[in-house]
Each structure stands twice: as structure tokens, then as C-alpha cells.
Amino acid sequence: SGAWACFDEFNRINLDVLSVCAQQVFCVLSAIRERKKQFVFTDGAVVGLDPRVGFFITMNPGYAGRSELPDNLKALFRTVAMMVPDYGLISEILLYSDGYLQARDCARKIVATYKLCSEQLSSQDHYDYGMRAVIAVLRAAGNLKRAFPDEEEFVLMLRSIIDVNLCKFLSHDVPLFNGITSDLFPGVVLPEPDYENLTAAMTSQCAKLNLQPHPYFFEKCIQLYEMIVVRHGLMVVGLSFSGKTAAIKVLSGALIELHEKNLNDENKVDVVYLNPKSVTMGQLYGETDKATQEWKDGVLAVQFRKLAQQTGPNRKWLVLDGPVDAIWIENMNTVLDDNKKLCLPNSEIIAMSGAMNMIFEVADLAVASPATVSRCGMVYLEPHQLGWKPLFTSWLSTLDQSLGFGTLARITGLFDWLLPPALRIIKKRVAEMSPVSESNLAVSLMRLFKGLLADVTGIGAKVESDGDASGATTKTAGDEGNGGGDDSGGTSAAKPRVRLSSYGGVGNDDAMAATIDSIFVFSVIWAVGGCTDAKGRVVFDKVFREVLAGKIPDADLALFIPKEHLTLASTPVPDADGSVLFDYCLTAKDPTRWQLWTETISDSECAIPPGASFSSIIVPTNDSARYTFLLNNSLQHDYPVLFCGPTGTGKSVYIQRHLKSLNKDKCTPTVIGFSARTTANMTQEQVDGRLDKRRKGIYGPPPGRKAYFFVDDLNMPAREVYGAQPPVEILRQFQDYKGWFGRDNVFRAVVDVQFLAAMGPAGGGRNIVTDRYLRHFNLVGIAEVADSTLSGIFETILTWYLKTGSFAPGLQALVPKVVSATLGIYNACLDGLLPTPSKSHYTFNLRDLARVVQGMMLMVSASVPEGTDGEAVYMRLWVHETMRVFGDRLTDDRDLEWLIGKVKHTTQTAFGADFNQLLAHLDVDSVGEIGPDAMRRCVFGNYMDVEADGEPGGKPRLYEEVQDTEKLIGVVEEYLVDFNGTSKRPMNLAMFLYTAEHISRITRVLNQPGGNLLCVGVGGSGRQSLSRLSAHICKMDVIQVEISKTYGVAEWREDLKRMLRMSGGEGKHVVFLFSDSQIKTEVFVEDINNI
Questions:
Q1: What angle do CA 825, 827, 830 make, to 5 degrees?
Q2: What pLDDT is recorded for position 487?
């Protein structure tokens, strides 16, 4: 007979391929219709024809990941709608075949159970009551009947229904489900299952892994075991800190222990972990090399084949720990259904062995398809069922043994008293910089407290080693305390060597009490309260001070504060006017005393070195002191820290500056900048490129060193269609399993590496990062810098510049007024000039504030007259710089008039000067009022002296006021003539005030270090021409790429290298001119952004 082909899941093929399929099927059907013996197929081959050939398609209706069949394909097939099968009849037949005598009654109860569950229980992504769910119950019932042939059948059936379904229900649905089963099986009492040996083995494994034998955790481990018995594909679903990874590790360890003791007829377990979203689809399943056309296996195919080919009786678990979407996992439909075969793109088919299980570890199934959900068993875990107490109990056992029992009891009492109300305040009363779970905050508190305890008292401090060339790692605070939590997985780590403390209070509980209390209060303030913004800190300060004083602030918090609790033995945190808890730290000499952060800054740190560039000046503040302290603590004690705050608050500066200050012989810092186009492969290559091979399969920095990788803009990578961020997933694989798979599909263990990160709050192109990755970090909120701090920073810089530049004392007296006025304009623009779709570039941050001050520092003392005239020039300079930074961004006259009005008001209030009189020389039309037209003549520049070259040893170019606009236009014309005389591309430009003022603006930016400019305007408005002329005036070379049809990313990168070699290697001053018409791909823009 002819071949009959059944194409399952046919609409998962892409639309363009379906059209080709339609032509092929049409070709065959036409040949049958014409009764041909042979026919020419679509590829030109002559094929023999048996008219009995048949095509059959099975498919689900359209949803995520499915295509709609094209009309020319639909027309070739007869549609048959499949009705819902009779679950009762199917169940009855299968139960009879398994030996049930009451099969009809049992089948009715199964159908009724699922019908009532679908009607009464909540709707969740991972709930499924379809045919596959019924088959799972029937399969479990058959197993039980064979194991207990004499047991009452209703007992076996109830046990099957509960074992298969209970594990996937949320806690609030469990009572409803129990009610349904008790109504359907009245009077049926289930005997307690005999899991005594398994429970004993799990208890033993918890002790080995420093986890807590929590009843809920054990219940979920047993449910996982039961699900593994009846389903070959299952999902462990739950948020971070719910115990997913720990459940898999504990269960696998317990089964191995049972095997070693010859109990329960168990076998060993081989577990392989991989993250499917940390690689591309081709690298996961395999792909054809585009250059050589050779097939290259994917990491999943390699691991799947390796497990499938093992012939022993050992259990084999392939754990796919990563987000599930409707694309990659649907390629495993044939694995998860009764076929149990992995079909690869090269037509290879790998059959699962009977001892294999596919386990998916996911946070949720929001974007999974119904086909996937129905094929997998579900075990759902909830973090609130565990809470932070098991984490704390595990962490407490890791503290130094020299601590007395009284001290440990005091630490426990402090956690029970202060942590719950602190968590309540953060979750219900303030805004978090980034969403963070309560368990994560608790673990952050434990890490910080343990680190500070080691720093202050020496208790538990690690012994300095000369570097372990073998690459062995030590377990750190970041890996501990995961009692039933979603722990970091991977290989078990050795216990750190500790030195006993020389601190006098060790063993003396009373002497330690005040120190412990002080360290704990500081840790709560920053580990829990530190994740909020400036407004939230004020709220946290007000409420938490009352809690520390032993009061109950209100009825809501009364539920979270125990009636019997400790009283602080340490000095209360000072409550000076305007200060909050976050303004204080512990003194170095006496850790029970408090001092302001500003008191920790030495005079030498405040000194600005002579000749320092503006971008290199760092003025120490209370912000820099406290954030650097927290950063240093994380580096010293090996736990990752995440700085989160708005743009311009100094996140990257704090981290990069501190990393540069580390000992270069022991540390190798690297910065990785994320962007919207960053991929997982790019991230992995950047890290692997900095590591050496220690020995087979183990990579790390040179022996004796530690590598620090700072990931900037962590939340910038674009989300995929279904929400995953592969660059984040590859980093999560490192945090969870201490390594990743190389391109050779071999696991690479990465040692002596620590990650730090910074990001802005989600929104405006920034995405929410999965909590499964953020759970590894201590979150530190970088709040907006206070106006008083900003004033101090810029007054320090400006005063230093004026003093070292020999400016008149009268100008130095204006510094506080200049800074105050700039702050006023900046805050007014933040409130009054909001971005809209037509004005999307109306975004202001602290960098704009710094640009005004940087512009004020362009002028030298030789350009300023003496006496009151000099003060007037300096005030006009401030007006000019303010208009350049804020005014040049505005697009219409109404906004410009609004800004000029603010500047007029600020000039009067800050300087006590009349704006119209100060700029009276601009009023050439004698209107008496300085408006937008007059402000066009407010010009400062360093180009008026044509003979000055600005070279070392030559005549300096002075940044000075230009009052004669006619002369300005004439000077610009001279530069144009000079440009046309030397350029291969002369420009015929008519010079008037418009061109002169734009050239002045462009040259001002080009003269500033790191001055980048975005010229916005319609075509033909002179953006490129004026930029070329301005570069000529500033004696800079212009580089512009030449776009052609064949111009691609490779040519673009070569042009960038040529430009960077000229500027960085040869020391030339270069302008890279890039227009919007040259953007062939977004890669160009991303590369410019990264530069």
C-alpha cells in the first residue's frame, strides 16, 4: 500500500514553510487525479506514484507559538473537528484492564472530581483537567492495584487522585479539593503511606546540606517523588525561595542514600542541570553550520543522548532550570507525550530510556502553551509556606563556634523582634527601587550582619590564603541559609577556614550584647530599609525608630511585633534635626557608638589634586561613604551586591572607582555594559575571555587572584517575545551552578569570580529582571542625591577651580549663589518640562546639573575683567551655560519663554541682579525686555581670536563673552574660507546669526572632554555642515562612514576601530559624525552608545 504519513502539531511550522508544503501536497494530489504512474516532484526529481498514498494532519487550534494554516493548504485537506472524548468510558475500560471490579463507579468519581475542580478551584496557568490528567490518575491507579491487589478499590482510587493532583494546587485551593474528594468518597479513610525510610534519608540529606526538615518541604519532596514515579515529564513550579532546587537535591541525595543502604529497591540518581534560555535555540537542540554546512549538536541533544545511552538501572534526571515559553519547550512535545522521543532538526530521533525523567524548574507558566501544561506533571511550591525562619535557622548554624549560647539566643531574639516589622514597613508603606521578596531581604540581612560581625569583632573572619591554584572554592554567606529555599545548587563547597577572634567580648554574652545589637540595627537599616528611595527612607526612619524604642507604632504593626521581646543594650541611633537612620554608621573604635557618615571622611580624601579634569573629580559625600562601605563589605565577604537607582546618582562611579582602588596583584576587575542588543553569547564570551584554564573543566582568573565583574545596566537587555532575558539567564546559571556550558557542550566550572551589578528602576526601556536572579543579590537603593549634598559637591569643585585659577575674591564669593541658582533651574525643569511623545528628549538628570558647572569652568581668569564688571560677566556666563544646557533642548518658543522667565526670577532671587539690566546690551531693538530673540545674542566662545591655536606653547584660546554679533559672523566667515581652502569637500554656506549661534553651541560642546552632541532638526537645516565647520574651528579631524549596499556590521566595526586608533592611539582630536540616514541596523547605534 502507499505510504500514510501523519504530521503531528503541523501548525507549529513557520508560515513560509507551510506554503512550500502546500505546493508539494498539491503536486502529489494532482498526479493522483491525473492517474499518473510517475510524476515530477517540486524539486525536479521524477518520483513513482502509488495512488493509495495518504496525508493526515493533527493540530491544535491557534494560540501562542502556532501558525494559521494558509488557504492554499487548507483547501487540500478535509477538516475533521475532534470532539471531547468520553472520559468516563475510557477510564472504565482502562480500569477494567488493570483489574478493578468497581471500574464504572471509580471512573464516574474521576470524571466528577475533575469537573468539580474546574468549576470551583481558582484558575491557574499550571492547572490542567484534560485527558492527559485523567490518564495520569489511571496510570497511578493501575500501579497501586498491582502493588496492593487486596486493598479496597475506592481507597486506591482516592489515593491515586490525591497523589496526582494535590501537589499542583495552591494553598487556598487545597481545602476546596479536600472537600470535593471527601464528598465523592464518603467514609473512605486513607492509610498513611509508608515513607519512613525515605523521610529518614531526606532528614539525613538536610543535615548534610544544612537545610531544615520543614514539614511542608518534606511534603513537597514526597509529592515530587510520587510524581516522578507516574510521569516521565514534570514541572517544579514556584517563586524563588520556595525550595525547588533544594527539593530536587534532597530527593536525589535521599534516593542515593537508600540505594547505598539497600532499602526500598531504589537506584542511584544521575542529575544533569542546564538552563535552556542561556543559549540560542540552535545551540540548545543543534543546528547546521552556515559556513561548512556541517551538523553541530546542541547542548540539550548531547546531554539527552548521553543519559539515554546509559544502560544501567540508575535514575536519570535531566533538569531544565529556566523560563518556559511556547517555542523551545514545544519542540519537546514528542518527548513529553507517550512517544518519549526527542526529534532533532537533522532528523535524528533519540528515544528516552525507562529510567529517565525530564524535570523543568520554573517560576511560572504564564507563557506556556496548553499542550505543554497538559503533558507534564506539576509540583507547585509556595515561598510563604516556608518563610524566612528555616533560612535563619540554617544560617545560625554557620556562625562561628566561639559565640556563646547566650549570644546566639540574643541574635535569634533580635531577628524575631525587629525583622518582621521592618519587612512589613518595606512591603506595605514605602516604594521599593526594585521588587524584592521578604526571604531575599532576610538573607541580605544575614549576609550583611555576618560580614559586619567579622569586620568589627573578627568572629568568623576568613584566613587570608596565598591563592588556591586548584580552583577549589569556599562556601560563602551568599550560599548559606537556604533551608528549603531555592538554593544556589551546583557542587557542594568546602567549609571556610576561620580564625578565632581576639575580640575581648567573645564568650562573654553580656559584653557582646551591646555590640551585637548595634551591628544588627545597622544591618536591618541597610539590608531591609536600604532598598527604598529617599521618601521611603523618611517613612522607614519614623516608624522603625518607634519599634527600636520598644513601642508599637500602630495596630497594623502590632501583629508583627511579639509581646515579649528584647530591649536594645546598645546606644540608640541619634535623632538630630533633619537626620535619618541612614545618615549614621558605627564608629570604628567603639562599635556600640554612632557617628555621621560625613565624619568618616578624611581631609585628604576631600583634597582635589592640581590640574584634575572635571570628569575625574570625586567629591566625597555621605552618599559615597556609605555606598562604598556597603560595596567593600560585599567584596570582603564574597556576596554579590546590586546598586539600583535613577540615572545620574553615581551607581557606576561608586563601583568602578572602588574596583580601581583594589590591589591589582590580587584582583582583576572588569566592566560589562549591558544594552538592549546584548546576547547571552556576548556576555559569556566577555567573562570567558578574562579567565584562564586551571585544570580540566575548571576556569578562573590567574591563581592567587579574584575576578570581579561589574555588570552595568543589568536590566537593559531586551525581553524576548515571551519575556526571558538570555544575558540574565546565563549569569543566573553561574550563580546557581557555578559555571556554564561552553560552545563545545562541556560544562565549565568557574571559580574565584564575583559579580556586582547596577541598574535603574524598571521603565523607559529598562525591564524587570527575574527575581530568580535578583535573589542572589543584596539590593542597595541609591536614592536621589539631596540638594544639600549637591550644593556641597559643586561648591567644592567650583571654589577649587576659582582658587587654583587665580580668580578675583569677588567671583569666589558668587560660588554658593551660582550653585543654588543652578539647582533651582534644574528642579524647575524637572517639574515643568515633562517628556511627551513629541518631546521625548525632555529628560533631565544630574548630568545636566554637572554640565552647567563644567561650562562655568571653561572660562579662565584672563577672560574676566576686574571689579563689578567681572562679576557681571560671570553672572552672564551662568545665564549662558544654563541656556545652553537646558534651553538648547527645547523645541518651541513657549517652552523657551517659560525657561527664560525662570532664569529671570532666579537671577533676581539668587544674585540680587536685574536680568534685563544684566543683559541690556542684547536689547538692540530697545524693547526694554529680554526675550527669546534677544537671548540668541548671548554668546560665549573661544574662537574669536583667529590667530590663537590653543596648542601647548602657543597662544591660548580664551573662552570669553562675544558682544558684537556682526564681528562674530565675520569671524565665522573667515573660518569657512579657511575650511574651503583646505577641504576636499568645500561648503557654500551663507553666514548669518542662525548659523553663527549654532556653530558657537557645537564648538562649546566639542571643547569639553567627553562632549557628545545630538543635533536634532529637519533635513537641510545644516546639522552636518555646521558640525564639520565647528570641528575645523576646534582643530579636530572629522571621520564619517561611507554607507554602501554591501556595508555591514563587519565594515562598521573596522571603521570604529580606525577612529579609535586615531583618537586613542595617535592622540588626535577626532569628531565622529554619524547621521540618522546611515543607521542600517540598530547594532550601529548600540555600538555608539557603548563607546
A1: 110
A2: 42
